[in-house]
Amino acid sequence: MTVKVLSINGWCRNGSTIIGNLLNEVEGFFHVGELHFLWKNAYGKGSNNKCGCGRELVACPIWSRVLEREQPAAHAREAHAREVCARQARSIRTRHTWRALRDGIASKDRQQHAETMARTYRAIAEETGCQVIVDSTKIPGEAALLEHVEGIEAYYVHLVRDPRAIAHSWMRQKDYAYTLSAFRSTAYWVTFNLASRALVARYPERSLFVRYEDFIREPARVLRTLVELVGGDPSTLPLRGRVAELQPNHTVTGNPDRFRSGPTLIRPDDSKWRDELPTRDQLTTIALAWPLMWKYGYPLTGGTTRAPADAAYTHANADSHSGDRADSDHTHSHPQPLPRSERGPRSAR
């Protein structure tokens, strides 16, 4: 059985959580959130040990079984989780993207991690009945291994949001999510986007470049393009105008808004940073990021987004030349009551 994996890459606070949860409502799709952190969070060493359904990962009816099925025989759970996390730290961080693209699974660490990913994706597909797994991990070094994971067909999204909006989002404390300075946020923005750029450039026929600003401007069109990329049925998109009815999900990590469900409004504006991000921080962000901002069509002063200057990306934008983890500035959801957590993805309901 071959399972399709739609891998979302880029820097955090770029809209991946809301996009993933919207895709989770499409027939045959299942959004896993940031799967990279499953082992770290399940056994108490991560920032949040809860599934999007509200239960601890080890008690969730889906993730408890996935963890059990993925774990090799004769391995203790905690020891296996430590081993997976150690391999991730040694060999598949963002800075390892170019080496992974060049050498594949030549190293023992990357080979073993590709085998772990194969077991995990297979267990997810069998437990949920989905045909497409949406993985919003956003670590290109890990996504670069997908071509070597047995039993999957990989697709890639490079999701970008204006670095000033992201710096503004990182200023605020959100539940278990820590804060970052504008300097650190933008330094990560540059690094993660360069790595994501290398990834989609390697597989252009199975990749899309998406700006968060284009998504909030025309959410149905962007979602339809993503669904069609992997051969899904866009007629099952959950949007009615700008409103979607989101069901409880089973995401691993991600924006704390993943715990919300119910009617969700996609707001078309992402400009709060213009008034609330200090001028010093805006200038810091521009100083670090201006070359990529120009390539991606972000104005350095005033004005609105334009078509990307990089020809390599214009085809991926389809016809979206009008103007990235989303947060509550841009979407509004009603708080989730205690969830019906036995539900799988829509394909299994």
Could you explain the architecture of this structure?
The chain is of the alpha/beta class and 349 residues long. The strands form two sheets. The protein has a five-stranded parallel beta sheet with strand order 2-3-1-4-5, with helices on both faces. Strands 6-7-8-9 form a four-stranded antiparallel beta sheet, covered by helices on one side. Helix 3 crosses helix 6. The longest helix has 21 residues. It is globular.
Task: State the share of residues found in helices, binned by percent.
Answer: 40-55%
Question: How far is the first residue's CA from the last residue's CA?
Answer: 21 Å
Radius of gyration: 19 Å
- Give the SSE order as H and E letters: EHEHHHHHEHEHHEHHEEEHHHE
Which term fits the overall shape?
globular
Mean pLDDT reading: 88
Give me the count of strands: 9
Quote the beta fraction: 5-15%
Low-confidence regions = 314-349
Largest sheet: 5 strands, parallel
